[in-house]
Amino acid sequence: MKRREWLAAAATLSSVAALGGLTGCAAPTLRGTGDLGVVIGRANGTLYLVDTSSRSLIGEVPGLGDLSHASVVFSRDGRFAYVFARDGGLTMVDLLTQRITRRVMQAGNSIGGAISDDGTLVAAQNYTPGGVKVFDARTLEIVADIPALYDPLGTPGKLSRVVGLVDLPGRRFAYSLFDADAIWVTDCSDPKKPLTQKFNGIGRQPYDALVTPDGRHYIAGLFGEDGLAMLDLWADNPGVRRILGGYGKGQEPLPVYKMPHLRGWAVAGRRAYLPAIGRHEVLVVDTDNWQEVGRIPVAGQPVFVMARPDGRQVWVNFAVPDYHRVQVIDTQRQQIVQTIEPGKAVLHMEFTPRGDAVWISSRDDDRVSVFDTAGFRRLAQLEVPAPSGIFFTSRAARMGF
Prior knowledge:
The chain is mostly beta strands and 401 residues long. It contains one helix and 34 strands.
């Protein structure tokens, strides 16, 4: 009995030490990870840690490199954040101890990544050199290198920039090759022998992509032409189908000031809401047949079109010169019901797990604002130098995030 009590006490002390140790006789600060999130400080290479329930800053982790186009995924337990930096750095950050655990420079130019469904593999999508690298999630040791080789006009050996990397069930990843007009799906069940299916000629210049919440459809937006390319991952013989082709046909396109992002797309019931390239519109699509069923005029060129978790609202931010605004679409009424101005250069939005609030970054005003999604009141304001991406640990339980 004494031995059992001694082992229990030793385990408790070990846990406390892992969370920062004891200070005098003060009780240790214990916390779960479900309340946590991070904000990217793009100007100073710093990750700002936040508590979403108390709406407060709780720490910061500097030294993460060029975060001008950084993105984040989380370990399955929500304790570790994997930060993909523009300079090719991949950093593993412990949100509880608020320290860098591991860091590798894995490429020359990287714009994002994903984590496998079982949480064991982290994959980075790279511009330079073009391709995907896969790492052990615990050690950040590389386990697979998949160069995005293609043969343009009979010139073999070219490397394409990779975009739209998402996780799929079964330790698989889907991604798009911007320069090769292709979608690849790589099975990393055995990361030492990755198997890749290649779908070529899917449309000109896929610039970003998403996977539907059920994991069935991978959809890539096309920058070189109107429309999207959709791959049915459940089909016995999968192929790419074009959807929403020519949605801007017959209309003069506007200059594109910032590429829209599909990763934060909106699904409400059987409708999807997508940003239209070069137009001041949000497209409404029936997800049963993938046909356009409507368009909603908005204040500017949409960048993120994001649904509140319950699907009742869709929030939209914009490229310049309208990047100080955010508009809210009521999905029942199919119209704008609110316009707010959180600050200059709104770059990102993130809903709390059940959608009671939304966090919005305003880069040029050095602040993050928290708004109530029911009454649109500003609930809190956090001072963060040049904030951009906002990511909450609830993403750990979602496919494609």
